[in-house]
Amino acid sequence: MSQKLKIKTKRVYDDVANNDGYRLLVDRIWPRAVSKEDAQLDEWNKDLAPSDELRKWFDHDPDKFDEFTKRYKKELKNKQEDLERIKEMAQDKRVCLLYGAKDKEHNQAVVLKEVLNAL
After folding, report:
1. What is the pLDDT of residues 13-50, one digit of tens each?
2. Which of 29, 39, 76, 112 is at 20 to 30 A from 58, Cα to Cα?
3. Domain coordinates of the chain in residue numbers?
4. Which PANTHER family does this entry report, sorted A to Z (predicted)?
5. DSSP reduced 3-state for 7
6. Alpha-carbon distances of 89 from 26, 29, 94, rounded to whole Å
């Protein structure tokens, strides 16, 4: 029986909270107007972010989100080592997947959380 993972998603622009836990940025490009100090990251994992090609194609268009999700999940199949490491971490402590997009429902962190919970 697998235990519930402690994963949440959050905009990197939101204030840092005590219950964020391990702060992991999953964007390929550093978010605008955020200093490295303000971000207070534990890790920036560009490899888990969508490819440049997929990111540009999606362009944060909610109408493309279902197809984006399919394509991104396909890309993540090649990232099993990172996914397993984060899953293991999230069994013991909270992991906060950070992203820069304005849309809180249609972004890669939402998809990544779903993938991690399905492992």
Report:
1. 999 999 999 999 999 999 999 999 999 999 999 999 99
2. 39
3. 7-118
4. CYTOPLASMIC PROTEIN, CYTOPLASMIC PROTEIN-RELATED
5. strand
6. 16, 24, 8
Q: Is the predicted pLDDT of residue 5 greater than 60, yes or no? A: yes
What is the reported pTM? 0.95
State which amino acid sits at residue 117.
Answer: N
The 3-state DSSP class for residue 61 equals: coil
Per-residue pLDDT tens over the stretch 96-109: 999 999 999 999 99
Q: Is 34 helix (H, G, I), strand (E, B) or coil?
A: coil
Q: CA–CA distance from 112 to each of 1, 10, 41, 69, 92 (Å)?
A: 21, 12, 18, 9, 18
| pLDDT, averaged across the chain | 96
How far is the C-alpha of 117 from the C-alpha of 10, rounded, in Å?
17
Nearest of 84, 93, 94, 81 to residue 118 by alpha carbon: 84
